[in-house]
């Protein structure tokens, strides 16, 4: 609101960005933990090793996590660079103000000051865009975490169903073997009776 007040240092935007950066780092940590749990599940003994769809899903979520992490660090680095640039511009602005109060301002000095003021306004606009990008990234990661939890629950459900399916297949195989033995015994008895009948 004032030309003598820095736009970023100690402002609400600076504090907001720092708070959001901490929240996004926490979300990235949780997302990494979920990916690690998914990797442990795919490497467990109860999961078929040839499940290509499961491996593709895991790799896809790893790529998404890597993209989010890269975008976050890039956005944070841009914010810090803009803040450092504004700190440098703030010292120049103070020099201009001291010159203005000491010896007056001619048209050239006024023009330079207005340009510098416009640069500071542009920096403020860039910071607002950076915060908007960070908020969108946070929302996307929250949605991604929900999707990963849903996938993890589905995989756990499938893992719980595999033992029941294996038990059912084993029962079917035992019943087939029993039927084969009964059929063989009946055929053998019938053959023996026919031979006894033929010779007597």
UniProtKB/TrEMBL annotation:
GO molecular function: SNAP receptor activity
A GO CC term attached to the entry: Golgi medial cisterna
Task performed by this protein: Involved in transport from the ER to the Golgi apparatus as well as in intra-Golgi transport. It belongs to a super-family of proteins called t-SNAREs or soluble NSF (N-ethylmaleimide-sensitive factor) attachment protein receptor. May play a protective role against hydrogen peroxide induced cytotoxicity under glutathione depleted conditions in neuronal cells by regulating the intracellular ROS levels via inhibition of p38 MAPK (MAPK11, MAPK12, MAPK13 and MAPK14). Participates in docking and fusion stage of ER to cis-Golgi transport.
Residues annotated as transmembrane: 181-199
Species for this entry: Oreotrochilus melanogaster
Keywords: Golgi apparatus, Membrane, Protein transport, Transmembrane, Transmembrane helix, Transport
Name this protein carries in UniProt: Golgi SNAP receptor complex member 1
Source taxon at top rank: Eukaryota
Predominant cellular place of this UniProt entry's protein: Golgi
Membrane topology of the entry: Single-pass type IV membrane protein
């Amino acid at each position: 609101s004032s030309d003598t007040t820095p736009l970023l240092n100690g402002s609400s935007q600076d504090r907001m960005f720092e708070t959001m950066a901490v929240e996004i780092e926490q979300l990235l940590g949780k997302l990494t933990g979920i990916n690690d749990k998914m990797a442990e599940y795919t490497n467990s003994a109860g999961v078929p090793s040839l499940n290509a769809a499961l491996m593709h899903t895991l790799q896809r979520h790893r790529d998404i996590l890597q993209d989010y992490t890269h975008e976050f660090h890039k956005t944070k680095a841009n914010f810090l660079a803009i803040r450092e640039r504004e700190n440098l511009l703030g010292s120049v602005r103070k020099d201009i103000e001291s010159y203005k109060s000491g010896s007056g301002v001619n048209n050239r000095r006024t023009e330079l000051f207005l340009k510098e003021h416009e640069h500071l306004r542009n920096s403020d606009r860039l910071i607002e865009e950076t915060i908007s990008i960070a908020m969108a990234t946070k929302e996307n990661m929250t949605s991604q975490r929900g999707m990963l939890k849903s996938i993890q629950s589905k995989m756990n459900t499938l893992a719980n169903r595999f033992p029941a399916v294996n038990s059912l297949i084993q029962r079917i195989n035992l019943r087939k073997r029993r039927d084969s033995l009964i059929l063989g015994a009946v055929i053998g008895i019938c053959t023996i009776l026919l031979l006894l009948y033929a010779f007597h």
